[in-house]
Amino acid sequence: MYNCQYIKGYRLKTILAAADCIIPEHAGLSRGGSLETAGVVDWAITQMPSGMRFQFLLFITVVYLLGFFFGGRSFDKNLPIHRIRQLKWMESSAIPSFRLGFMGLKSYICMGYFTCEKNWNSIHYHGPILYDHPSPDPVIRKLCQGKLEVRA
């Protein structure tokens, strides 16, 4: 069992909604918004220096609240078209903090999704060369293998 330390409540809802926009269900790929993805993102956040972690979590809050300007509700409750418009705006914003924050969010979501072994077949990835090489942190390895249930 892996209990998320940082990704819970509105943060979880925001990450799941953003992940569904960044990695939509398509051609054999499952959508990105899953507890497994969120669990890997949460694990990665725990590894960040505290200052960077604060900024990342603050950015998730900003994404959540900016939803009111793009669809009239919080990010997770907006229609997918409004979420996508918001994320595209952030990605190409004239404000560097939004662009940087979006790239960080997208990177962590992609890392969370594509490190989960259940997604490898659909992208024709056969695993790392040193597949059975022990991980320095067994928690992340078990998360990626789907051997730990994620709770937010």
Topology:
Blueprint: E1 2-3, H1 10-22, H2 35-47, H3 50-70, H4 80-91, H5 96-114, H6 138-145, E2 150-151
Parallel strand pairs: 1-2
List keywords for this structure.
152 residues, mainly alpha, 6 helices, globular
Structural notes for this entry:
The chain is mostly helical. The chain has one domain (2-22, 30-151). The chain has six helices and two strands. A two-stranded parallel sheet has the order 1-2. The mean pLDDT is 92.
Question: What structural class should be given to the helix and strand makeup?
Answer: mainly alpha
Give the percentage of residues in beta strands.
under 5%
* Number of helices, counting only DSSP H or I runs of 4 residues or more: 6
- Unreliable stretches: none
The largest beta-sheet arranges its strands as: 1-2
Shape: globular
Percent helix range: 55-70%
What's the end-to-end separation, in Å? Answer: 11 Å
Mean pLDDT: 92
The biggest sheet, with number of strands, parallel, antiparallel or mixed sense and barrel status, is: 2 strands, parallel
Question: How many structural domains?
Answer: 1
Report the C-alpha radius of gyration, rounded. 16 Å
The arrangement of helices and strands along the chain is EHHHHHHE
Q: Count of DSSP E strands? A: 2
